[in-house]
């Protein structure tokens, strides 16, 4: 799906992005920047989820289930 929109852009920032991304048009530059931002955010989210899962797998080594089940846990 393509959406037409009008926005104000910093021309110097746009020129820098075009050079950095190697894109000839404003549209191609913005689409590539959005793609990279989305990919980066999704990758970071996946890495955080993997780290949390790894932590949960290691957690059992640092907990005492008997203490967690006992009344002492809640004092």
**Strand content of the residues, in percent?**
under 5%
List the quaternary state of the chains: single chain
User: What is the molecular shape?
Assistant: rod-shaped
Q: Radius of gyration from the CA trace?
A: 24 Å
Number of helices: 3
Biggest sheet architecture: none
The secondary-structure class comes to mainly alpha
What are the low-pLDDT stretches, counting only 5+ consecutive residues below 50?
A: none
Q: Name the helicity range.
A: 55-70%
Number of strands: 0
Total of domains: 1
Task: Please state the average pLDDT score.
Answer: 90
- What is the H/E order? HHH
Cα separation of the termini: 57 Å
Molecular structure report:
This protein has 75 residues and is an all-alpha fold. It has three helices and no strands. The longest helix has 34 residues, at 26-59. The model has no long low-confidence stretch (mean pLDDT 90).
Blueprint (SSEs and pairs):
Layout (H helix, E strand, L loop, with lengths): L10 H11 L4 H34 L5 H5 L6
Helix pairs in contact: 1-2
């Amino acid at each position: 799906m393509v959406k037409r929109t009008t926005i104000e852009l910093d021309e110097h920032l746009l020129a820098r992005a075009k050079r950095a991304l190697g894109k000839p048009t404003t549209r191609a530059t913005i689409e590539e920047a959005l793609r990279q931002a989305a990919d980066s955010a999704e990758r970071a989210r996946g890495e955080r989820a993997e780290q949390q899962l790894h932590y949960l797998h290691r957690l059992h080594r640092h907990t005492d289930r008997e203490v967690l089940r006992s009344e002492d846990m809640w004092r």
